[in-house]
Design a protein that fits this description.
single chain, 325 residues, alpha+beta, Pseudouridine synthase, 2 domains, elongated
Length: 325
């Protein structure tokens, strides 16, 4: 909602609501001296009223506006970060009138559900390990899946960083459904490889209570109030003060945590256009990797079409109206 005139708030909260990152990332901006209030450097813990005071970050005045939440189907080959190096990015798929940033990451060769928002507080909790938010993936596999492989994946497999957390794993038609609560780099693909399985497609179909539904690659929609409320319920309370997996000795391999806050230096290469994304016209393929099945969350699953190329994504995705599920 728009900011109420005459109401002072902590500066890091104002910056997070304006889409400059999580509150912690915004605190880092303040510590570095990148934030000015009425021409002077801001300090941690200071409050301000953006309707009456000039809050400037990187030479641009901050004007918090409407909070937006998008569900986006990130296609294969599209980057989930804002630092794209000229390649297509997921932020190019949504309207450019409000600056949003992705909640967490999804490797380039995987596809499926991502949340984009300027709600820094919610984004921080959704991808912080202390809340252990579930992320559900469907992996289309080549060859037979043994019960032994399912058992190994369920109890955790050893990767370069250490043993993965126990996961919920079950066989579905055409492959596996895997539920994770941590976000190591390319975790699903590497877990499968460690058990001798080769993934054809990996699609994320749910984050907490939010399902991918029938979005097609490159499509997006705004979340309904009930969906946002469901996400907030998933991260209520203080969370687990020190998740058990943080106590393990792990060697970082460059993947980073499941969510890396966006800093003010991150910039989109340009606003999203009006062109439609893949699957917007003609014989639209199903976004789901398994034919004629239904997942545990009840989302419909159509006929698989195999991996798809995703040309033209620099020009924006297609909006799906009405909160379609």
């Amino acid at each position: 909602m728009p900011h109420e005139r005459g109401r002072a708030e902590r500066i890091q909260k104002i910056l997070a609501r304006a889409g400059l990152g999580s509150r912690r990332a915004c605190e880092d901006l303040i510590r570095r001296g990148d934030v000015l209030v009425d021409g002077r450097a801001a300090s941690i813990g200071e409050s301000a009223d953006p309707a009456r005071q000039a809050i400037v970050v990187d030479g641009r005045r901050v004007r918090p506006g409407e909070i937006v939440h998008y569900a986006v189907y990130k296609p294969r080959g599209v980057l989930s970060t804002l630092e794209k190096g000229g390649r297509p990015g997921v932020a190019d798929l949504v309207p450019g009138d409000v600056r949003v940033y992705p909640v967490g990451r999804l490797e380039a060769e995987s596809e499926g559900l991502m949340i984009l928002t300027n709600d820094g507080a919610l984004a921080h909790r959704l991808c912080h390990p202390r809340w252990g938010v579930e992320r559900v993936y469907r992996a289309e596999l080549e060859g037979r899946v043994s019960d032994e492989a399912v058992e190994r994946l369920s109890h955790g497999v050893r990767l370069a960083e250490g043993r993965t957390l126990p996961a919920k794993v079950k066989k579905v038609r055409g492959g596996l459904e895997i539920v994770l609560r941590e976000g190591l780099n390319r975790e699903v693909r590497r877990m499968l490889a460690a058990t001798g399985l080769r993934a054809g497609r990996i699609v994320r179909v749910r984050i907490a209570s939010l399902a991918l539904g029938d979005l097609a690659p490159g499509e997006w929609r705004r979340l309904e109030a009930r969906e946002v409320a469901g996400l907030r319920r998933a991260v209520e309370g203080p969370g687990e003060a020190r998740p058990s997996w943080l106590g393990r000795k792990r060697r970082r391999t460059g993947g980073g945590p499941p969510c890396r806050p966006t800093s003010v230096q991150s910039r989109r290469s340009g606003p999203a256009g009006k062109a439609q994304g893949p699957g917007a016209a003609g014989g639209r393929p199903s976004p789901h990797p398994f034919p004629n099945g239904r997942g545990s969350e009840g989302e419909g699953v159509g006929r698989a079409t195999g991996p798809r190329e995703t040309p033209g994504l620099h020009h924006g995705g297609r909006a799906v109206r009405g909160g379609r599920r």
